[in-house]
Fold these 2 entries.
Entry 1:
Amino acid sequence: MNGKIPHIVQYQGSKRLLAPQILQYMPYKFHRLLEPFAGMAAITIAVAAERRAKQYFINDINKPIVRLLQTAINVPDELITKYTQIWNGQFEYSGGHLEHFYHIRDCFNAGEQTAENMLYLLARCVKGAVRYGKNGKFNQSPDKRRHGTNPQKVAENVYAIAALLKGKTQFSSIDYRQVLDITQAGDLVYMDPPYQGVSNVRDNRYYSGVDFETFSKSIEILNKKSVDYVISYDGECGGKGYGNDLPESLRCTKILLKAGISTQATLLGRKDTTFEALYLSDRLANKLFDFIPKQMTLFD
Ligand SMILES: C[S@@+](CC[C@H](N)C(=O)[O-])C[C@H]1O[C@@H](n2cnc3c(N)ncnc32)[C@H](O)[C@@H]1O
C-alpha cells in the first residue's frame, strides 16, 4: 500500500489503522467485496487502493452514513461545495461555532439528514462517535477544541476515494442479514459488527446492536453457500478477553492483530497491548495458508 489510505472523516471504531494487517488475510485478487457493517468503509477503501476487487458493495443500517459515502463517491463536487458552505458558516454564526454545531444538529434531527450535515456532525463531534438517544435523535456533543477537518483536506480525501470507487460500487442501507442473502460464491465479505462489549448496553455506541446468536447463524449460512469471509469481532487486552468467541462449529481460524497500547491501561500506569480478533472462514484460511505458514501469521 503506497502512502496513507484516504478517509472521509473520523469515525469511532474505524479500521483504517488496522487495514494493512487485515488485508494480509484477504486474497490478492477477487471479484467483489461486500461490507455489510461499513461505517466509513475503511476496508473497502483500502482494498480499492490496492485494486484487489472489481466490484464493491457498501451497506450500513445507518442511512445518513451510507448517504455520505454514496455522495462522496458519486458526486464529490456536490459534497465538497456544500460542506465548505456549512464549515465556513461556523465562523460567521452569531452565537459562535458551538452554537452553530447545535444548529446543524437540530436541522439533522428535524429531518435534514443530508450527506453534508452528517459529514459536518462527524467532523466536529467528540471522537467521531455517532450516538443516538432513545428518541432516535443524534445527541453527540461538539468537540470544543476543534472546528472539524477543513474543507481542503476533506476534498483531497474525497476525490481520492471517488477515483477509487466511482462506477464500481453499490450502496444499501439495510440489515446486514439481507446483504448476506445476496452473497454468492466468489464474493468476499468483510464484517465489522458493533463490539459485543458495547452493543447491548444502554449507551449504545452504534445505531443498533447485533445479537450474538443471530450473527452466528448468519455466518453458518455463508459457510453453506461457500462464500469467503473475514470478521473483526471483539478484542482482548492484557490477556483479558471480552465478549464471546464465535462458535467452534463455524470452523473459523482466529487471528489476533496487534491494535496498539490500551489508553485505559496507560491511564492506570500499565502498558497493556490491545489485540483485535480477526476470524477467517475455513475456506479462505485453507486457500491463504497454502502460501503463508500459519504460525508466522499470528503476531506479525
Ligand atoms: C464497528 S462499526 C464499523 C466501522 C467500519 N469498519 C469502519 O472502518 O469505519 C459497526 C457499524 O455497524 C453498523 N450496524 C449496526 N447494526 C447493524 C445492522 N444490524 N446491520 C447493518 N449495519 C449495522 C453501525 O451503524 C456501524 O456503523
Note: The beta strands are 30-35, 53-59, 169-172, 187-191, 228-237, 240-242, 253-261, 273-280.
Entry 2:
Amino acid sequence: MEPLRWAQRSGLPDGFLNASLRDIPDLFPDPTLVYLHGRGPAVFVSILLHGNEDAGLLAVQDLLRRYPQGQLPRALTLFIGNVEACRSQARFLPHQVDFNRAWPGSETETTPVHLMLEEVCEHVLDEGLFASIDIHNNTGRNPIYGCICSCAPQHVYLASLFSPRIIYFIRPKGVQTQAFMHHCPSLTCECGRPGDKVAARAAADLIDRLLNMDSLERPDHLADDIEVYHTVARIQVRDGYSFGFEPGCDIIFRRDLDALNFVQLPPGEQLGSLSPRMLQTQIEECFLVHDEHGRDVTSDYLTRRDGSVVFQRETMPSMLTRDINVIRQDCLGYLMERFPLQGNRV
Ligand SMILES: [Zn+2]
C-alpha cells in the first residue's frame, strides 16, 4: 500500500489570503505541508483536516494579514489536510477515512491516509517543534474551548492561553493532538460553528502569541478561572424512533438544546419529552449512553419523569447539536465532569 499523495512547499500560493473552502483544491491539489520561514523551533498548525470546517483557514488568513511583509517572528509549518473534501464542504468524502482519526496512534485499520500522516509527522518533527495546534469547528452552539490529550502542565498551560474551558480526552485515538503530545505542547482549538470569524480570530491570536513567545515555560499558577473537564459519556439516540424539535416526533428535544453546552446542569434538568404514544417505552429503548470504556450507562445519566426525559445526575454537556443528521450519524452530544487539577497548581 502506498501513502496518499501529498506535497510540500515553501510559502503560500497567491490567492490564499482570500480563498474560501471551495478554492482550496485549486490552490492545493494534494494535502500539503507549507513551510513559512522564521526562527526555530516551529509552531505546527494543521487546518482543514475536516473539509467542512473553515475555522483553521480563517484563523491562518487572519494571522498572516498581520504580517503583510511575510516575515514571521517564528517559523510556522502548516498542514492543509483534506483538500478534496473542501470542494464539497464535507467532513470527509464517502471513499475516504476521517483525517483526524488516522494520525500515528490510530486504532483504525491502516489506509493510504494513515501512511501519509505518518510521513507528514516525520517531516514536521524533523524541524523541531515549539507547539502543535489543530483547528476545528463543531456543529452545536459551543463557546470556544481547547482539547488536550494529556493533563501534563505544558499542555494545560498552552490550552489556557486559548480558553479557560479545557477538555481532556483520551478517545478517539488517531487525532493530531495525540500524535504530537509526546513531542511538544499540543492542543486542539474548537472554534464554534463554521463561519464564526470571532472564534477563528481567537485561534489566530493564540498562534500569533506563540510566534512571539520565547518560551512556553509555565507560570507557577494558572489563571484562577481555568476549568478542565473530561468526557465521561456519549449520548446516542437509538434507531427505530422519530426525533426532532417539533411536536409529532416520538422524541422531542428541547429547542434550546445546544444552549446547555458547558452549563453545569442539576439532576432533573430536562433534555426533552416523549410523545404520549411512548408512555410504555423505557428510556433505555430510546437512548444509549456509553461511558469511555464502552459500557452502557444509560440509566445512570438519563431517566424519565412522566413524559419528560431528564438528567438523572448533575452533569455538564458539550457538543449537544440541533443537527438531525449529526445526531443520527454520530451522536446527540457528550457529558463531562470536572477533572481535578491540584489547586490549579500544575
Ligand atoms: Zn473537525
Note: The chain has a mean pLDDT of 94.
